[in-house]
Amino acid sequence: MRKVWSEPLLHFLLLGLGLFALYGLVAPEGTADREIVVTDDIVAMLAKRHALVWQRPPTGPELDGLIEAHIREEILYREGVAAGLDRDDPVIRRRVVQKIEVLGEERGAQAAPDEAELQTWLQNNAARYARPPLLSYQQVMFDPVRHGSGLEAAFKAALARLKAGADPGRLGDSSLLPVREAGVPLDRLEREYGEDFAAALAALPVGSWEGPIRSGFGVHIVRVDSRTEGEAATLAEVRAAVERDWENDRRKTASEAWYQQLRSEYTIRVEAELSGRGTSGGE
Fold this sequence. Notes:
The chain is of the alpha+beta class. About 55% of the residues lie in helices and about 10% in strands. The protein contains 12 helices and 4 strands. It has helices at about 1-5, 10-25, 40-55, 60-80, 90-105, 115-125, 125-130, 145, 150-165, 185-195, 195-205, 235-265, and strands at about 135-140, 180-185, 210-215, 220-230. The protein has a 4-stranded antiparallel sheet with strand order 2-1-4-3. The chain starts with a helix and ends in a 19-residue tail after the last helix.
């Protein structure tokens, strides 16, 4: 009998049984739900995913394989969660947060906005949808690098000739920039030349050559030939954008309200030392 108890294999088996029994005692009840129900909705979802990928419905054997793969995934997922493998994993945490945020957004779901709601939104955000001013102008551009210390003299000479009626196409440095443009939206000038250039043109008097006006391309002499002030957009003109922005705002508002409600149900303590932050504390 003593020889039997000294066998290493017996020790290993007893140790395994002991660990199994210990896990049964300390593991929380309901560690992994042991019932898996494959409903018609799940089968329809599996078939739809297959059709989206392969552009055809699955065959019978393929559907059986999809169902078996779903069962396998569900079993392994439940066991993984029961074992705590979902904890402290930043990828899983981020994915769960994204999904719960979507649920929070959908809590505020409601019927499509009516005409009055969209009109009110447009009025409260009129600047976002307003048509920008339109400018027609002519320009002469000088490259500061090319002219160096002679830039100011060249610039003044060209400005004098322009005011005397010279053709702007024959002055300045050659470039791909247009000499004349008509009906250009001010926001396009901001994108192409920069905000400072666009702001300067918006403030220039109409009908006279003015400068220097700087952009990322160089130094310009500009004459604004006409300026049409921006106008508020009508709902008919920007309906699609207003509906999209209204819906985005609704989702954000619903999500934030839900989060604040959830946060109020938690006791939060910040116990870390916030050195160098100026203040510290907690809730």
